[in-house]
């Protein structure tokens, strides 16, 4: 797929593979990126209340990419939605590009956090939800996308254990399950969250309608997790 640098038309889901093909040099993290593509698209296309014009609006929804070690799909979606120029994509990972192998919130328009180190995003999301509640801002939703392997990190379990009893109903977590975790969860990933008082749904991570239904499911008084199952990383 060829995309002109000066192209200004609206972009859609079908453009994303071409956008990702423009970013080379980090192929070892290709599975980490492609595993997130559909969930990211449904969030930005149909769920998140944030646009390039509103990215500094205090009332915006917050999206935190914890799975930042494979950011190519994230950058592709941000380009499709107008947060970053398409012409930035071919320079991905170069010394003078804003689009690094890990996102930098100072350099990437629309990025809420710098990420990539496993286990940081969910605790930050908990703090963000708490901060918004303390400010009396009850409308913005906080979304964080993590990988199943991040659940090997203890910091996430502390965050899970805190968020349920705290009743952080504006907190939403998407777990991309590509079978890359080292430690099994008794009863599955969703059961771990449910045991801490979360609302939980498990869906096919490539089915856009199933993802949308899960993302918008009501969960009064509780944080919500969507476990999005995709093909195994090493399949």
Automatic annotation (TrEMBL):
InterPro entries: THDP-binding (IPR029061), Transketolase_N (IPR005474)
Transketolase N-terminal domain: residues covered: 29-217
GO function terms (MF aspect): magnesium ion binding
Record-stated family: Belongs to the transketolase family.
Cofactor: thiamine diphosphate
Domain of life of the organism encoding this protein: Bacteria
Keywords: Thiamine pyrophosphate
Coiled-coil features, chain-numbered ranges: none
Record-given protein name: Transketolase
Pfam family, one: Transketolase_N
């Amino acid at each position: 797929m060829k995309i002109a640098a000066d192209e200004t038309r609206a972009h859609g889901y079908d453009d994303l593979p071409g956008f990702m093909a423009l970013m080379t040099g980090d192929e070892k993290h290709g599975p980490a990126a492609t595993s997130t593509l559909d969930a990211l698209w449904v969030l930005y296309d149909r769920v998140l209340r944030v646009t390039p014009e509103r990215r500094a609006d205090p009332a915006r929804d917050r999206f935190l990419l914890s799975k930042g070690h494979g950011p190519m799909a994230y950058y592709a979606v941000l380009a499709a939605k107008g947060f970053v120029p398409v012409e930035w994509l071919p320079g991905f990972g170069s010394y003078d590009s804003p689009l690094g192998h890990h996102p930098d919130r100072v350099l990437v328009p629309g990025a809420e956090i710098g990420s990539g180190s496993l286990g940081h995003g969910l605790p930050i999301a908990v703090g963000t939800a708490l901060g918004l509640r303390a400010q009396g801002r009850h409308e913005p939703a906080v979304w964080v996308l993590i990988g199943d392997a991040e659940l090997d990190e203890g910091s996430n379990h502390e965050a899970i254990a805190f968020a349920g009893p705290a009743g952080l109903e504006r907190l939403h977590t998407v777990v991309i399950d590509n079978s890359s975790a080292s430690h099994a969860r008794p009863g599955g990933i969703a059961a771990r969250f449910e045991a801490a008082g979360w609302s939980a749904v498990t869906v096919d991570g490539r089915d856009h309608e199933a993802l949308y239904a899960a993302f918008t499911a009501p969960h009064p008084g509780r944080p919500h997790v969507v476990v999005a199952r995709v093909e195994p990383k090493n399949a």
